[in-house]
Amino acid sequence: MRRTYAQGMTTSSGGNITLRDEDGDQWVTPSAIDKATVSQDLILKVDAQGKIEGKKPISSEYPFHRRVLETRPDLNAVYHAHPKAIVGFSFAQIAPDMKVIPKYSDYVGRINVAEYACPGTEDLAGNIAKEFADGCDAAILSNHGIVTGAGSVEEAFVKTELIERTARMEILAKSNGLEWIYPDHPDAYKNAAQQVHLMEEYEPEKPSEKELEARTLICKWANRAYKKNLCGTLDGSFAMRVTKNSFVITPANVDRMNMQPDDCVLIRAGKREKGKTPDDSAILFQTIFDTHADLNYALMASPVSIMVFAITDRDFPVKVIPESYQMLRELPKMEFGTWQNDPRKVAGQVRENRPVVLFRNDCLLSVGRSEFKSFDRLEVADYTAQSIFDSEMIGALVPLSKQAIKDIEDKFFKGEV
């Protein structure tokens, strides 16, 4: 709940969560409590007979939590929040179009829209339970917010986070008159996960100082990316070379905010550390490092602003600010599913002086000689994207002049091949 507030997905008094444990008891957030500081001792318990134990009044929204859990015995967590973009969709009484990002859509599942009723009433509980009975795991509450169900609180949080990110992309695209595109083969991304699971394992040895440093740095940059809203809880991938034929990479399905160095996975000569599963990007990163001896770091993420260029046909204009042109050079697009199914093609596309690629309906790839450069390029791409959209709300975008471009090329690109 504190994290929900910290990530801007609810106000101080808004939002509530219920978790059902193995014994069937339900644990519920209290009513009218500061969500930034709510503590474990304030969580209420509701036993199977409906007896309530706790120091504070139970959440006024508990009726719909109870009804959803009664309706869906396969769910253990009910999560309610008021993320700003989702609330915008709730005013329009429609759901975000998750199909523009297939990996998000598959994780979240179907989203229904529940009819409005006064908060805290059995009428609202009935409206929400009806939608969950229909098979959805998330419901936009008309003129209110969102309810998400899952097997765990963490999973419900991630689903809500992905819906909010997609909602922000859709609002940004539509407010700038852009129509999004859909991938021809939305399942194409799944191939990478299958390949990673087929990687051979090896028994790890005592880590070197360089490996320990790489693990620490991977966690540092993944954590920063999450805090800066450049990636989600599970969808940012970061890798750093250790030796000529080994690198450390973020693990699959581990929280980017709380990830620890031991969670990271060492890939050595195409084999993965025993007992650990790396991110799906492991084979792509392996191919990039094998192809380019001068590249030591690679990352993939899906920041909201730059992703608008990935879900629409609009090309990204790098020549609008010196930093963007200098850092990114260009920002080509590759088709959805390319990195999962043709890593050699992607490795042939990137190099130190052509370091970023945008994959349609998926993510941005950034590579570099250092983790700082790669991360900076990610930030520059997303910041510039947002500034482009902002500028067009107040006037026509004016790109850099030919002379300005020549000056940048003379200063930063001279002598390059």
Care to describe what's here?
Residues 1-171, 216-389 form the Class II aldolase/adducin N-terminal domain. Residues 1-23 are annotated as: Disordered. Residues 7-16 have a biased composition (Polar residues). This is Class II aldolase/adducin family protein. It comes from Diplocloster agilis. The strands form 2 sheets. The protein has a 9-stranded mixed beta sheet with strand order 9-13-12-11-10-14-17-16-15, with helices on both faces. An 8-stranded mixed beta sheet has the order 4-3-2-1-5-8-7-6, with helices on both faces. The mean pLDDT is 95. It is built from 15 helices and 17 strands. By secondary structure, the chain is α+β, with helices and mostly antiparallel strands. β1 (16-20) and β2 (26-28) form a beta hairpin. It has 2 domains: 2-175, L-fuculose-1-phosphate Aldolase (3-Layer(aba) Sandwich), CATH 3.40.225.10; 190-413, Class II aldolase/adducin N-terminal domain (L-fuculose-1-phosphate Aldolase, 3-Layer(aba) Sandwich), CATH 3.40.225.10. It has helices at residues 2-6, 62-71, 84-92, 102-108, 122-133, 153-175, 190-198, 209-227, 282-291, 304-310, 322-328, 338-341, 343-349, 371-394, 402-413; strands spanning 16-20, 26-28, 44-46, 52-53, 77-81, 111-114, 138-141, 145-150, 201-202, 237-243, 246-249, 265-268, 271-273, 297-301, 333-334, 356-359, 363-368. α2 (62-71) packs parallel to α5 (122-133). The protein starts with a helix and ends with a helix. The protein is 40% helix and 17% strand.
